[in-house]
Amino acid sequence: MPEARVVLVGPKNEGNVGAVARAMKNFGVSQLVLVAPCPIGDDAYKRAMHGADVLANAKTVESIEEAVRDADLVAGTTGIATQSEKRFLRIALTPREFATRMAVMDGTLAILFGREDFGLLSEELAQCDALVSIPASEEYPILNISHAAAIVLYELFAAETKRHPREASHAEKEHLHDALRDLLDATNYPAHLKGRTMVMFRRMIGRAVPSKWEFHALMGVLTRATKTIRRKHGS
């Protein structure tokens, strides 16, 4: 299991923050980061119960970028998911699928939970390497953030951990994204499609959790293709 970090983005109810801290304690997760939160007081600590230490040690930041800066993989949660390729920003894994894939990961996994009223914004979801959505009744599919956190953290805790080859680091995966961007530039890929393609590639790599060997193999393909194209065009 990776080292999980729970990131609450713009929480508006301190009781929810305390309940999330309690769920984190249940499943052995200690890193809690609050992005521009509401004031945290007695109600939060009452709800936290034995997770009061998790709440007391929570870090408060002003932006998601600061909250995930040193994370190796960033996952966002969403109550609105789809399998439609036309709405690729909302293609998500179930918590069990997510946990199974993350079980092979080493490093820090940041899990973003959005605001109680409207969740994570589209531009915030675009920064995520993977998305998680909890299947629920169509009549009322949106879960309270503390309930959502408990389900996701339970699945991570319960997932069987198997030893696999070392996973590519966050820095290495960023080099991979840069290599694809370089290849798109070299092939004069349509500018209006570039952003969408980069997000789709980021999601694919996030779901795959590539090993270091796979990273180097794919990196070699992308950089070789880019060099060959530029050499043929004399650039």
Characterize the structure shown:
The chain is α/β, with parallel strands linked by helices and 235 residues long. The chain has helices spanning 14-26, 42-48, 52-56, 64-67, 95-102, 122-125, 145-158, 170-186, 191-208, 212-232, and strands spanning 3-9, 31-35, 59-61, 73-77, 108-113, 130-132. α5 packs across α7 and α8 (170-186) packs antiparallel against α9 (191-208). The model has no long low-confidence stretch (mean pLDDT 90).
CATH C-level class of the largest domain is Alpha Beta
Number of helices: 10
Radius of gyration: 19 Å
User: What is the β-strand count?
Assistant: 6
Helicity range of the residues?
A: 40-55%
Categorize the overall geometry: elongated
The computed structural class is alpha/beta
Q: What is the CATH third-level topology name of the largest domain?
A: Alpha/beta knot
**Largest β sheet strand count, sense and barrel closure:** 6 strands, parallel
Instruction: Kindly report how far apart the N and C termini lie.
Output: 45 Å
Spatial order of strands in the largest sheet = 3-2-1-5-4-6
Q: Tell me what the CATH architecture of the largest domain is.
A: 3-Layer(aba) Sandwich
CATH superfamily of the largest domain: SPOUT methyltransferase, trefoil knot domain
**Low-confidence sequence ranges:** none
What's the mean pLDDT score?
90
